[in-house]
Amino acid sequence: MLDEPITYWLPFALSHSSAHLTLTQLLTHQSGMIDNPNMLTYAPSANLAHYIGFHDSPDILLASYLNEDGALYHAVSEDTPIYSRQGVTLARYAFTQAT
């Protein structure tokens, strides 16, 4: 399960560059996902999803972030090992969809 592409468990499509991501890559910060700066700057007391306008569900937020047509899309760079808050969020979401 950890080394299978997460697209198997997600209810939305990912961009071509994100389609190969695995839980192992996401959980070890080796996915190359780079947090979109617009996702990181928000009022500390606000709920992030509410603040940026995605009130209903994490799949809408993640789809917008990881689909090339999404408003928050930020490309994945395979050679960039870096901590990604959205990578961890995506791993958690994929895991909950799989179980």
TrEMBL record:
Mind telling me which InterPro entries this protein's record contains?
Answer: Beta-lactam/transpept-like
Tell me what this protein is called: Uncharacterized protein
What is the scientific name of the source organism?
Answer: Pseudoalteromonas luteoviolacea CPMOR-1
